[in-house]
Design goal:
The chain has one helix at residues 83-94; strands at 9-13, 18-23, 26-27, 36-41, 44-50, 59-65, 69-75, 106-117, 120-129, 132-142, 147-155, 165-166, 171-173, 176-184, 187-188. It has 193 residues and is mainly beta. The strands form 2 sheets. A 12-stranded antiparallel beta sheet has the order 7-4-2-14-11-10-9-8-6-5-1-15, covered by helices on one side. It is elongated and about 50 Å long.
Length: 193
């Protein structure tokens, strides 16, 4: 059996070797009119410290710049999303009702507990959005080529985010969004000195 090639030590994470996506879904009577969105964080960074044989001593931190969220894909809906629609969604995301990026420029995640193996793991940690911190569990897996993938489910209202709605509430985004990540061959972080 081959093992994941994520070596011991500290590894840098970021857009050069990974993707961080937020996936929304629709609810309500008007859901046929709306779109399921895939939103990508284009500016983010993190560090994973791997302690072989002792996952409980390993750690992960990630920081996302809230004004770097970009609509990448829209599925469903009665008509395709225009560039104007994409820009409007991104403006809405940055506004006070949702992420309020002017006052809260970053989203952070800090692991508090890691269990499992490099092939199948869970990372529990504190997710801070809009100044509120709540626990989240990330479910992950690694393949022999060194690619790590994972996902977490986040309920927006827990962090004081009111899910987007339109047409007097007939179309709304589900309160729950799925966050997905993929990292291919994270770079070793430079050592001290």
């Amino acid at each position: 059996m081959s093992t994941v090639t994520l070596s011991e030590g500290s590894h840098r994470l970021g857009p050069s070797g990974g993707r961080l996506l937020i996936k929304t879904s629709r609810t309500g009577l008007g859901r046929r009119a709306g779109h399921d969105l895939t939103i990508e964080a284009t500016r983010w960074s993190g560090e994973a410290t791997v302690v072989g044989g002792a996952p409980e001593e390993s750690s992960v931190t990630v920081t996302v710049e809230t004004d770097s969220l970009s609509v990448r894909e829209a599925t469903g809906g009665l008509k395709p999303l225009s560039e104007g629609d994409r820009a409007e969604i991104e403006r809405t995301l940055e506004g006070k009702g949702l992420l309020h990026t002017a006052e809260h420029p970053t989203i952070t995640f800090r692991s508090t507990r890691i269990t499992g193996t490099p092939e199948s793991f869970e990372i529990t940690g504190d997710l801070t959005i809009k100044g509120r911190t709540h626990p989240v569990t990330v479910h992950g897996s690694g393949d022999p080529g060194g690619t790590l993938r994972g996902w977490a489910s986040v309920t927006q209202s827990t962090w004081g985010i009111k899910p987007y709605s339109a047409f007097l509430g007939a179309l709304k985004l589900s309160d729950e969004v799925r966050i997905e990540f993929e990292a291919t061959g994270p770079e070793p972080a430079p050592g001290p000195g």
